[in-house]
């Protein structure tokens, strides 16, 4: 099943079932998902990428599990002799993180066995399909940075707004050292918790820094004011309110309260999906603020759009291989042919999903502020 995205193209939903050779039997090596509630056995995943669900609802008449942003499609569960409901996806799922919810007799609920993550403008259940390359975002015995919540004043909205700030390991040790800053945006339906909870951004950074693969920098994540826009309603989106919050209110607050290198050369903006669209809009409107731009499954730049962007250091464009990788690669080549430092990345065997964006951040981070 596919759904149109706010970009006017095709949004690739995460499927609860995919085609798989019928002569391939399901391997019964299921283990609890790493995102289960403490002590909960289900949902489970196996080595092939299948997911198995069990719900305790003895009085229910029907239960379906829907996976992906928005919870489309469904794996129908059947009632067992002990009155629980169980079911297994028809095929293996893509590696990485997926949202899901359950429908019980027509009502939408979260799985009491799984942790919740904010997506689809609500708290959804989450499941993690182990990835063959998951080491780069794994929790390791390395020095860790800090992720802290801040509240910053916003005169334009008449309230205090929330952001999360990642400071790298060692930030508190050398009070004379200042850092570049990446402003990192979530996608539609998500909020400022997405990049650390679903995206593992802090662990990706910790591991890269421990491997000495990048110069440490601060990451700032705030709500992009996107979730009032419905699918297909892009024409109604006005970037001005969020641009005011970000550029005129949040950035000055960060530069005042954290040890930043407060200039264009040491400031980057990136985003996934609709956050990528916001990144493009703001960097087009305010080219003097940022020197590094990154769009992850969030559109492309054309050379003529940035030809007068003085101080531009890098454009990074990425997508999953199941999205529109040719457009990304072609856009990158045109930028390079125009003499612009552009890098493209395509995540293998992933769609519009968090493994695409985890991998994208892993590729992007070492390129920033070089």
From TrEMBL:
InterPro entries: AB_hydrolase_fold, Esterase-like, Ig-like_fold, Mycobacterial_A85_antigen. GO terms for molecular function: acyltransferase activity, transferring groups other than amino-acyl groups. Keywords: Signal. Residues 1-21 form the signal peptide. Pfam families: Esterase. This is Esterase.
């Amino acid at each position: 099943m596919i759904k149109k995205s706010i970009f006017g193209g095709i949004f690739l939903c995460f499927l609860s079932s995919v085609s798989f050779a019928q002569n391939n039997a399901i391997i019964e090596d299921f283990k609890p998902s790493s995102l289960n509630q403490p002590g909960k056995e289900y949902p489970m995943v196996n080595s092939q990428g299948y997911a198995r669900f069990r719900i305790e609802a003895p009085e229910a008449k029907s239960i379906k599990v829907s996976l992906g942003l928005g919870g489309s499609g469904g794996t129908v569960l059947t009632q067992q002799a002990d009155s629980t409901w169980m079911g297994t996806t028809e095929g293996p799922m893509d590696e990485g993180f997926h949202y899901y919810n359950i429908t019980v007799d027509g009502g939408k609920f979260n799985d009491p066995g799984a942790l919740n993550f904010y997506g689809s403008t609500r708290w959804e259940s989450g499941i993690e399909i182990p990835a063959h390359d998951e080491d780069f975002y794994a929790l390791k015995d390395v020095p860790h940075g800090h992720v802290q919540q801040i509240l910053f004043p916003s005169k334009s909205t008449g309230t205090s707004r929330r952001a999360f700030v990642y400071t790298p390991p060692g930030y508190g040790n050398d009070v004379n050292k200042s850092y570049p800053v990446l402003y990192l945006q979530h996608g539609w339906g998500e909020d400022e918790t997405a990049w650390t909870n679903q995206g593992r951004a802090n662990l990706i950074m910790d591991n890269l820094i421990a491997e000495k693969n990048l110069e440490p920098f601060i990451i700032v994540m705030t709500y992009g004011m996107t979730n009032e826009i419905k699918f297909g309603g892009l024409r109604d989106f006005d970037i001005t309110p969020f641009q005011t919050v970000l550029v005129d209110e949040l950035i000055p607050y960060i530069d005042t309260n954290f040890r930043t290198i407060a200039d264009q050369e040491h400031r980057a903006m990136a985003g996934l999906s609709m956050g990528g669209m916001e990144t493009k809009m703001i960097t087009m409107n305010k080219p003097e603020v940022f020197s590094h731009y990154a769009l992850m499954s969030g559109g492309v730049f054309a050379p003529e759009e940035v030809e007068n962007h003085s101080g531009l250091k890098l454009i990074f464009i990425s997508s999953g291989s199941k999205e529109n990788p040719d457009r990304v690669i072609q856009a990158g080549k045109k930028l390079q042919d125009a003499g612009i430092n552009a890098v493209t990345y395509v995540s293998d065997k992933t769609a519009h999903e968090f493994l695409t964006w985890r991998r994208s951040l892993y590729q992007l981070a070492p390129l920033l502020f070089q």
